[in-house]
Design goal:
The protein is of the alpha+beta class. 31% of the residues lie in helices and 25% in strands.
């Protein structure tokens, strides 16, 4: 909103700022310094300061007003045209007409403040009351409240107001600003910047448990380990001085943590001069590590503590803050109380950030656990997962997985559970593991989705879902099963975006099946899950993804999928697949903060060579087992299979074919596959009875065939097909 212009073009910048900042300036303690106009003489301003009306050193016990207002006018090139920084708090801040406004700022703040200045120039919307630092000539910094207003017509440019903030005003502004992030580093940095209002150098040291998100428990002083989390101002420091990321020596950690927990009561500790500091530290190495420079200094150490768990004997140390300043400026009791209040409020935010860090690590570990580990000699996979935000609230329920199935097949699964955080991650983990178990047990993609549909409904019942305040209804999932011998893929989809298939000739298509709502959508007309089968010649690329990769508020979802197809067409068969996956995500995902989780799985299918497989379809007759054994002998000899392994494979084939002929109907299909040092035998029939391993009696004529198969193979099982079943067995070659 454009600021309301003053009634007279002669209105001063001070009058403009006073009106804009009226709600930010306390009314207590006499006339507000913000009302001091430029017409007031320098003598009058000195008289007001000497009377307690807001000098730089005025404290709240004097009843005076600490806020001192200054103003700087800048032109459209952000160069200073005029200024009024006569008040005592601005002493040492050099301002000269014609210089850049950026010269007043610490180097690290220049880009951010410059963007704000230019934005006000463009929009003419005031930027009001932000905590900012100014550079003094002696290298120290002054904390002010800065507002940026467009100059009153007919003037052009900007008026930048600077208020040397009262400690209480700064305290409340800082406490409100510090709790806006769940990032531990940002919280520590915000606290350090706020502490500069009480000193020349501020440091924040946090315990290791805070960084790692570990549970905070009762601590022995000698076990506390601290790491420097933040240090301001940002400048060149002497060699050996601890900067962010450095670990404090154990002696320093014990000293700082122990000093602030005297009698198990957290309180500030003040060392008034350098001699006292060196006497306490004793070791010159610790002095170099902790004391900022060789000048005379004093320090106040304020603990970051939280209440311990129920039954704990005392508070728990999260860290220690340090405020350093010149010894002639003694720390007053009122200042220490303000510091303790600010640090106490920050400690709660730090502990909250620690808990979110722990939750984030748990959820992300689950996400990473579900990502595909590696492919096989028939399929190569690569995956990318990028959460929405760096905190746990942004980690959602997107997941992809790839794992081998019995019979030399491979499963590719992608899903998107509704929501974010631990609830979504828990549901995601349950659905992913259930899908893997059901596919490994032999169920087809459509049957697995039917079971997952029931699971999502159970997750949302009164006891499990609603009581936890989380619903997984509407979650989506797509399952593809790749057969490397037939070079075909079976796919079923429950409300998920269609996969993309890139053929070896570079053409791409979306694999759409009959539409079906998401999992657990009981309000919809229930239809069986459609199973779509398609060819995947060697060299084909299958692309599975979640909506965060292709959604764009400015375009339709079809346009996003079209862009994905254009990008994946550029993936060449000789490209490193993991690098290609990252390149695809970088080309499609928005820069900066993501709107949703981005998940991508690329699967390059190579299949089995024809010389490593053999398949026969035989009629269901009494001599079929003998015929199958005769057909299997030549490929086993060609593959140089040892005599013992060959005899075992022939016996397994004979038993499986005999069972198919005896208990099923229709033709029998026998498949034999060599995969490295293994042999896969598979016998398909049109029956739907499941062979079961049972112990045969002494006089039983049947029931011993599966015992033979069980003894000769490393594993065996049954999977269901569209026309019946397939019994498979795996042997060592």
């Amino acid at each position: 909103m454009d600021p309301t212009p003053p009634s007279s073009s002669s209105a001063s910048p001070f009058d403009m700022v006073s009106g804009a900042l009226a709600d930010y300036i306390p009314r207590s303690g006499g006339t507000a310094a913000a009302s001091t106009g430029p017409a007031a003489s320098q003598g009058e301003r000195r008289a007001r300061r000497s009377a307690g009306g807001g000098g730089a050193g005025g404290d709240e016990e004097s009843g005076g007003q600490e806020q001192i207002l200054g103003a700087v006018n800048v032109d459209r090139d952000l160069r200073i045209t005029s200024c009024n920084l006569d008040a005592a708090p601005f002493e040492g801040v050099s301002v000269a007409p014609g210089t850049a406004f950026a010269d007043l700022l610490p180097p690290g703040d220049v880009p951010t403040v410059t963007r704000r200045l230019r934005k006000v120039l463009e929009t003419r919307e005031a930027h009001v009351a932000r905590v900012q630092r100014l550079r003094r000539d002696d290298g120290t910094e002054l904390v002010v409240s800065m507002s940026i207003l467009p100059a009153a017509p007919p003037q052009e440019g900007l008026t930048v107001s600077l208020i040397a903030m009262a400690k209480r005003l700064h305290l409340y502004a800082s406490a409100a600003a510090i709790g806006t992030s769940l990032d531990i580093g940002e919280t520590a940095q915000s606290l350090a910047h706020s502490l500069l209002a009480w000193g020349d150098v501020a440091a924040v040291n946090l315990d290791y448990a805070v960084w790692t998100g570990e549970a905070v428990t009762e601590q022995a002083h000698e076990r506390i380990r601290l790491r420097r989390a933040a240090l301001v101002p940002d400048r060149a420091w002497p060699e050996g001085y601890l900067t962010p990321g450095d670990n404090l020596p154990r002696e320093a950690s014990r000293l700082l943590a122990g000093a602030v927990l005297r009698d198990d009561v957290p309180q500030a500790v003040v060392l008034p001069d350098r001699e006292s500091i060196e006497r306490v530290l004793r070791d010159p190495r610790l002095v170099r590590a902790l004391v900022p420079g060789d000048r005379p200094v004093s320090v106040a150490c304020i603990p970051l503590v939280v209440e311990g768990p129920e039954g704990a004997p005392g508070p728990i140390v999260l860290g220690v803050t340090e405020v350093w300043r010149r010894p002639e400026r003694l720390f007053q009791d009122s200042e220490l109380l303000d510091l303790q209040e600010l640090v106490a409020k920050t400690a709660r935010h730090v502990d909250l950030a620690r808990r979110h860090q722990r939750e984030h690590a748990q959820v992300l570990a689950l996400q990473r656990r579900l990502l595909p580990r590696a492919g096989s000699d028939t399929i190569e996979v690569a995956s990318v997962y990028e959460p929405t935000t760096p905190d746990s609230a942004g980690v959602g329920g997107d997941w992809v997985n790839s794992f081998p199935l019995p019979g030399d097949r491979t499963a590719l699964v992608v899903g998107d559970v509704v929501g974010h955080g631990l609830g979504a991650a828990a549901a995601m983990g349950q659905l992913s593991m259930e899908a893997r178990a059901l596919l490994s047990a032999g169920l087809g993609p459509g049957e697995v989705l039917e079971r997952l549909d029931e699971t999502v409904t159970l997750l949302d019942d009164t006891d499990a879902g609603l009581a936890a305040g989380y619903s997984a209804l509407g979650s989506t999932c797509c399952i593809a099963v790749y057969d490397p011998v037939d070079h075909r893929v079976l796919m079923a989809n429950a409300g998920h975006l269609p996969p993309v298939l890139v053929l070896p000739d570079g053409s791409a298509e979306t694999l759409t099946a009959q539409p079906h709502p998401g999992l657990g959508a009981e309000f919809a007309v229930r239809e069986p899950f459609d199973v779509h089968e398609f060819a995947a010649p060697p060299g084909s690329l299958l692309v599975l993804y979640t909506d965060g990769l292709v959604e764009d508020p400015a375009a339709s979802i079809d346009e996003g999928i079209g862009r994905l197809m254009d990008v994946v067409r550029l993936v060449h068969p000789w490209d490193d697949l993991q690098r290609a996956a990252r390149r695809v995500v970088a080309g499609l995902a928005p820069q900066g903060r993501l709107r949703d989780d981005v998940t991508l799985l690329l699967a390059r299918m190579t299949g089995r060579r024809s010389q490593d497989t053999a398949t026969w379809q035989l009629p269901a007759r009494d001599d079929t087992a003998a015929r199958a054994r005769a057909l299997a002998v030549p490929p086993l000899r060609r593959w140089d299979v040892g005599d013992q392994a060959r005899d075992g494979a022939l016996l397994v084939i004979s038993e499986l074919v005999t069972n198919a002929v005896r208990f099923a109907t229709g033709p029998v299909t026998v498949r034999l596959v060599r995969a490295g040092g293994r042999l896969f035998c598979e016998v398909r029939d049109t029956g739907n009875g499941r062979p079961r391993l049972r112990r045969a009696g002494l006089l039983d004529e049947h029931g011993r065939g599966l015992h033979v198969v069980h003894k000769l193979t490393t594993r065996w099982g049954v999977r269901w097909t569209e026309t019946g079943k397939a019994v498979w067995a795996e042997l060592e070659a």
